[in-house]
Amino acid sequence: MRDTRESRLLLVLLIAIAFALITVDIRGGEDSPVDGARQAAATVFGPIENGVSSAVDPIGNAVTAVRESGDRHDRLAELERENAALKAELGSDDRSRSRLAQLDELLKISGRGQYGIKGAQVIAIGAAQGFSWTITIDAGADDGIKRDMTVLNGDGLVGRVTTVGPNTATVLLASDPDFTVGTRMESGDELGFASGQGDRPLRVELLNSKAEIKKGDRLVTFGSQADKPFVPGVPVGVVSRVDPTGGNLTRTLHVTPFVSFSKLDVVGVVVQAPEKDPRDTVLPKKPKPTPTPTVTVTVTPSAPADGLNQQEQ
Predict the structure, then answer these.
(1) What is the pTM of this model?
(2) Per-residue pLDDT tens digits for 288-302
(3) How far, in Å, CA of 99 to CA of 266, rounded?
(4) Which residues pair with 160 in a beta bridge?
(5) CA 60 → CA 63, 64, 73, distances in Å?
(6) What positions does the domain Rod shape-determining protein MreC beta-barrel core occupy (predicted)?
(7) Which of 165, 89, 95 is nearest to 127 (CA)?
(8) Which 8-state DSSP code applies to residue 142?
């Protein structure tokens, strides 16, 4: 339609009619005379509107998702950080519980042996002493640590102090090949010398080649003069093998140490020796042997067969 005077008059007329119908519809309320026409229009155009809405909604949702993707990414990153922090906290709690348990065992062993100890934590493995089996602890001269002091943990003998700094000290482990300690067999006076063999069991040379030793027997430290470098009564290990004497003047034992040298964390340095030898009181209680089940078989005599009874008759 061209823009003419007649078309403009027609447009003004249509607008006036529309406003009139709107006014009548509003004033009529539910009894509006145009209500039927409105329902007919809804019947015709409703499905079209729903179709258009269904087609447009995914696009709108996608636009909304894009708008919120930044917020969601930030929230996801925040949740990941919180999760990592929670895991670290749980790990820290587990570590703390483990250290508390180790400290508790250390206090028990020091109490049974009446050792005055200074607690320390292992901060390094394999100090500057070549390829020796050593650890570094976070206690030194400022804490009263001196050279040639006994080091133990809740399981038994760890080693001896070799080098001391102001705040740290180096400990030579009992597993080191250069390590030697005097030992005494449990419930007896058989003496010997235990030497480290790295990751293998300790090697113990008993002074008495005829000593009656069996697998499962246990050893403790014999102690040194003036209690340096070793105090008496510290658990050393369990006999795992006894070699034949072969006519030697000594008897060789292979001893599994109580201490796991690859899992050291909390240790104690004995800064004050006990007033008397604790002997075997520091050793852990022996596990009770598992009872061997016994089976009793009862034989019930069977009844005689019918045929045999008839023959006897």
Answers:
(1) 0.64
(2) 766 666 666 666 666
(3) 7
(4) 150, 172
(5) 5, 6, 20
(6) 130-270
(7) 165
(8) G
